Amino acid sequence: MKRSGILNRHLAGAVAELGHGDGVLICDVGMPIPSGPRVVDLAFRAGVPSFAEVLDGLLDELVVEGATAAEEIREGNPEAARLLTARLPELTHVPHDRLKALTASARLVVRTGEARPYANVLLRCGVFF
Fold it and tell me: How many CA atoms lie less than 13 Å away from 26 in the CB half-sphere?
């Protein structure tokens, strides 16, 4: 058994399979999940696990070369907006409808228990060298 890092076997396996340029959507319980990408649903109950916990856990495991969030997050969920800006200085913003369209290209979707609007981000994997 793993001692640290991601313990969820489905998520650990999915992260291990990611490559350069692959997209990872971390989303709240309200985000429509496209058919196609691998989905790891971590939602246990409202707020558990939180968007912040999942984001931080994945950022510990991934190299991220880009990130996209909905521009509506700034007014609709300022706490999540501050979190993303602090963790992802390269963050770009697009309209929420555009973000939903971009999720179709994600290779992995990780659903959190977050139940606040716009707690979603699409990460683009980088390389560690």
Answer: 28
Which of these, 30, 14, 36, lies nearest to 106 by C-alpha position?
36
Going by the DSSP 8-state scheme, the letter that residue 26 receives in this structure is: E
Summarize pLDDT for 69-91 with one digit per residue, the tens.
Answer: 999 999 999 999 999 999 998 89
- Exposure on the CB side of residue 93, measured as CA atoms within 13 A: 13
The pLDDT confidence band at residue 13, using thresholds 50, 70 and 90, is: very high
CA distance 8 to 121: 20
Residues assigned a catalytic role: 20
- Cα separation, 65 vs 76, in Å, equals 25
pLDDT more than 70, % of the chain: 98
Q: CB of 106 within 8 A of CB of 122?
A: yes
pTM of the entire predicted model: 0.94
